[in-house]
Amino acid sequence: MSEKEVEPPRRGIKSFVVRAGRMGTGQIRALAELGPRFVLPFKAGERLDPAAVFGREAPVVFEIGFGMGGATAQIAKTLSNHDFIGCEVHGPGVGALLKLIDEQQIGNIRIFQHDAVEVLEQMIAPDSLAGVHIYFPDPWHKKKHNKRRLIQPEFVAKLVKHIKPGGYLHCATDWEPYAQQMLEVLSAEPLLENTAAGYAEKPAYRPLTKFENRGIKLGHGVWDLVFRRS
Question: Catalytic: which of 49, 83, 102, 138?
Fold first, then answer.
């Protein structure tokens, strides 16, 4: 087997896939000028103090993989009495959200440009989050790649321990087989209770993305799942 064919040793759960992407000048400028204020440094083993970070006591919502940040910005404006911590490793997405934060003067968002799984394990205290948002994670369409999907029993068991009792986990996907897997995995987690009889109605705070609107016009479905921590 050649060196290129050797599969590297697998590490634990990862919340992302590294994708190539060119950053625009505006995104580069936003990272340079706004990054020091809104992008938090990852510090292994050091618990984050949200009150110190945001300068107030407020419910904290953690988002895993915010893409280009449009929905995150809109939700943060809608739920202005909440604070939002978003994790995204894709540089152009981080730059795009920083631009939105600046243009729309949004003060209740902070960002980790780091793997969300490590941020959760190392920096987020147990029983501390009011909510977690996971919108349109990579569906890994091919059956042989399904094991790479983020919503797996092992990950969910770790995740829910960071949600405070009464807090929620909100997932959304436009890939029905993944929606079915999400429903099965979340329903099997003893610390979670479904807020609906199956899939949930889209909560009013989650905006429709351009991609989602296009899919709906083509007859594609979108499935929301909202579970509460017991």
Answer: 138
- Tens digit of pLDDT for each residue in 186-218? 999 999 999 999 999 999 999 997 778 877 888
Q: Is residue 70 part of a domain?
A: yes
83 is in an annotated binding site: no
Q: Is residue 36 part of a domain?
A: no
Say whether pTM exceeds 0.70: yes
Residue 41 lies in a domain: no
Angle between helix 153-160 and 116-123 (nearest 10)? 40
The answer to whether the annotation marks 174 as part of a ligand binding site is yes
CA 73 to chain CA mean position, Å? 13
Question: Whole domain around residue 170: which residue ranges?
Answer: 52-229
Active-site annotation holds for 102: no
d(CA 75, CA 91): 21
Neighbour-count burial for 149-176, b at 16+ CB within 10 Å, e otherwise: bbbeeebbeebbbbbbeebbbbbbbbbe
Domain count, the chain: 1
**pLDDT tens track for 128-140:** 999 999 999 999 9
